[in-house]
């Protein structure tokens, strides 16, 4: 038996919504594919505990909520607040080249600012916005993102899960 395939999920969560989504997504993936390993990397905890950033050994997907200050994201700018540590992690070493894409989250009430930070990271680092979800995300969002992960990592889909 070879090593288990590792799916790495890098995220930051401030209100708990993104962490909840990543946890439920991980549980869902492991239920479908008990033969894989799902690694959760909470950037906020690393920073809080003073751990240095590190280079990822394998491909990962980033999860990013939108926290902006000022502006409307269209004609008078915006300032990303509280989540810039994710950009610093992605920019560290060779990490940007290992990021398969980003999943944004936010609140649709913010119109043009909905998932704007994920779109900005996509432009800055050159990887795609894979999906988005609102607030904590619904089961449909989890299934959609799980399907994207299966495709990106080449994990054979379990027909029974659909």
From TrEMBL:
<dbReference type="InterPro" id="IPR029039">
    <property type="entry name" value="Flavoprotein-like_sf"/>
</dbReference>
<protein>
    <recommendedName>
        <fullName>Putative NrdI-like protein</fullName>
    </recommendedName>
</protein>
<dbReference type="Pfam" id="PF07972">
    <property type="entry name" value="Flavodoxin_NdrI"/>
</dbReference>
<dbReference type="InterPro" id="IPR004465">
    <property type="entry name" value="RNR_NrdI"/>
</dbReference>
<dbReference type="InterPro" id="IPR008254">
    <property type="entry name" value="Flavodoxin/NO_synth"/>
</dbReference>
<feature type="domain" description="Flavodoxin-like">
    <location>
        <begin position="7"/>
        <end position="162"/>
    </location>
</feature>
């Amino acid at each position: 038996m070879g090593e288990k395939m590792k799916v790495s999920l890098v995220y930051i969560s401030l209100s708990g919504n993104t962490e909840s989504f990543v946890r439920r997504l991980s549980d869902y993936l492991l239920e479908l594919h008990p033969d894989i390993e799902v690694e959760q990397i909470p950037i906020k905890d690393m920073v809080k505990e003073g751990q240095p950033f590190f280079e990822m050994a394998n491909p990962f997907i980033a999860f990013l909520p939108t926290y902006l200050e000022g502006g409307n994201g269209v004609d008078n700018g915006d300032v990303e607040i509280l989540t810039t540590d994710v950009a610093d992690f992605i920019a560290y070493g060779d990490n940007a080249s290992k990021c398969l894409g980003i999943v944004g989250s936010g609140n649709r009430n913010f119109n043009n600012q909905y998932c704007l930070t994920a779109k900005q990271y996509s432009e800055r680092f050159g990887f795609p916005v894979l999906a988005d979800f609102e607030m904590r995300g619904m089961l449909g969002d989890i299934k959609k993102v799980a399907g994207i992960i299966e495709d990106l990592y080449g994990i054979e889909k379990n027909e029974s899960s659909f």
